[in-house]
Amino acid sequence: MNRRNLNRRIFLIVTAGAVLVIIGLTSAKGPLDWLYNVTLAPVSRSLAGMGSGISATMADVGRVSRLASDNAALARENAKLRQRLAADSETRHDNELLRQQLGLDVAGAAPQVAAEVVAFQPDSYRQFITIDKGSADGLKAGQAVLSEGVLAGLIASVTSHSAKIILVVDPEFKLAAKVQGSNMADGIVQGQLGGGLVMQKIDQTKQVKPGDTVTTSGLGGRVPAGLLIGQVQSVNNHINVIFQSAQISTPLEPSRLRFVFVVTPE
Q1: Which end of the chain is more exposed for a tag (fewer CB within 10 A), N or C?
Q2: Partner residues linked to 145 by β-bridges
């Protein structure tokens, strides 16, 4: 064995002894702790961070789900409130309409029977409504029907608990009427195809002008005099004809009728 090999062995023995001394002084736990801190601890912390992130994400998902559920519940409540408000508004409208119509009654006026419109039956030619009162309530064919103080039509037929009303805008409607004024012109009010009214058979000697009020004349039937029909809109006065005619405007809106009053004179 040469000297170089001997020196190398001595160096290795001394180095190994120094390592054993260090291990003995620091205990075997030191290197293991170092190894854990360098390798496993970062991985553990990373996994713990990922777990916290997943937990937070799941919590956010839970909150979003609860918010969606709460929003759906609020939407249902809002729908119920809107429906209730609409019903309340409709009730107020009906009550106001009834108050307006009742307020038109005056002392000494003919008795009236209030009724509700249960059907509106328009087609390309005829205009009828059906009400929920009939012969059991004293109604008879030919009686006048009012809406908001304006003539709406006449009873065409009755049953025990309902009545069919021909409206003034029906082309088959006819009624004796007069124009209020100094001349008190008489004529016949008729419905027109497509709506509207015309007053015919007006004597040429009578002066009729736009804006004049037209009422029932009370001639014939069960309709009393003085019920408002409408106003003169325009006058057709041609030379060399026996009678003149006039277009009559009425505030009646058949499709909006809700309540009417039947005039039942004694």
Answers
A1: C
A2: 153, 262
Give the separation between CA 221 and CA 48, rounded to whole angstroms: 98
Q: Read off the pLDDT of residues 168-201 as tens digits, 9 standing for 90 and up.
A: 999 999 999 999 876 789 999 999 887 789 999 9
Distance CA 194, CA 211 (A): 22
Higher-scoring residue by pLDDT: 203, 43: 203
Interatomic CA distance for residues 81 and 107, integer angstroms: 43
Contacts of 234 (CB under 8 A, 6+ apart): 210, 246, 247
Query: What is the torsion angle, in degrees rounded to the nearest 10, for the CA atoms of residue 217, residue 163, residue 94 and residue 81?
Result: -160
Distance separating the N- and C-terminal Cα atoms of the chain:
154
∠ Cα 8 14 20 (to 5°):
135
